[in-house]
Amino acid sequence: MEEKLKTILAESQDGQGALIPLLQKVQGELGYIPEEAIFGISEKLRVPASEIFGVLTFYAQFRLEPRGRTLVSICRGTACHVRGSTRILRTMESHLGIRAGETSPDMEFTLEAIRCFGSCSLAPVMVVNQDTYGRLTSEKALQILERYRENAEDN
């Protein structure tokens, strides 16, 4: 990871406007923004680490922790909430042994609760990686999750 970070920093541009593209590049390569990257970027761009941290925590696209291979996102918007997304989220937490915002110890799954996907007509909605599933029940959500687990075991 240290070598990748050095390469990214060496190839990146300096100056105003370089921060977000540089953070995106680091996350694209490493999967998240580790603490050492924050300090390296701070040094390169001569921007305080606290300012970089502020940007990282402001924009939802950035992660400060590594993410599992399979990202499971449960919609918590109004339509999904009314149609049972809380039960689905609790079922996923129980099944995976983690809470929303956490990653399983084997780094296979990350579970997150999202405010709204904009797919209200399909409520309740779950997105696994890039695949959207709607009109879910807890049972259907578990079946979908198990397909991803089986695929991971096959690879």
What characteristics describe this protein?
single chain, 155 residues, alpha+beta, Glutaredoxin, 2 domains, four-stranded mixed sheet, 7 helices, 12% strand
Oligomer: single chain
Report the average pLDDT across residues.
Answer: 92
Query: How far apart, in Å, are the first and last alpha carbons?
Result: 24 Å
Task: Just give the CATH class of the largest domain.
Answer: Alpha Beta
Named CATH topology of the largest domain: Glutaredoxin
Counting DSSP E segments of at least 2 residues, the number of strands comes to 4
Could you please describe the fold and organization of this structure?
- The protein is an alpha+beta fold.
- The protein folds into 2 domains: 2-58, no CATH class; 70-154, Glutaredoxin, CATH 3.40.30.
- 50% of the residues lie in helices and 12% in strands.
- It has 7 helices and 4 strands.
- It has helices spanning 2-11, 19-30, 35-45, 49-58, 78-82, 85-96, 138-154; strands at 70-75, 109-114, 126-128, 131-133.
- It has a 4-stranded mixed β-sheet, covered by helices on one side.
- The radius of gyration is 18 Å and the shape is elongated.
- The two termini are 24 Å apart.
- The mean pLDDT is 92.
List the helices and strands and how they pair.
Elements: H1 2-11, H2 19-30, H3 35-45, H4 49-58, E1 70-75, H5 78-82, H6 85-96, E2 109-114, E3 126-128, E4 131-133, H7 138-154
Helix pairs in contact: 1-2, 6-7
Summarize the structure.
The protein has 155 residues and is an alpha+beta fold. The chain has helices spanning 2-11, 19-30, 35-45, 49-58, 78-82, 85-96, 138-154; strands at 70-75, 109-114, 126-128, 131-133.
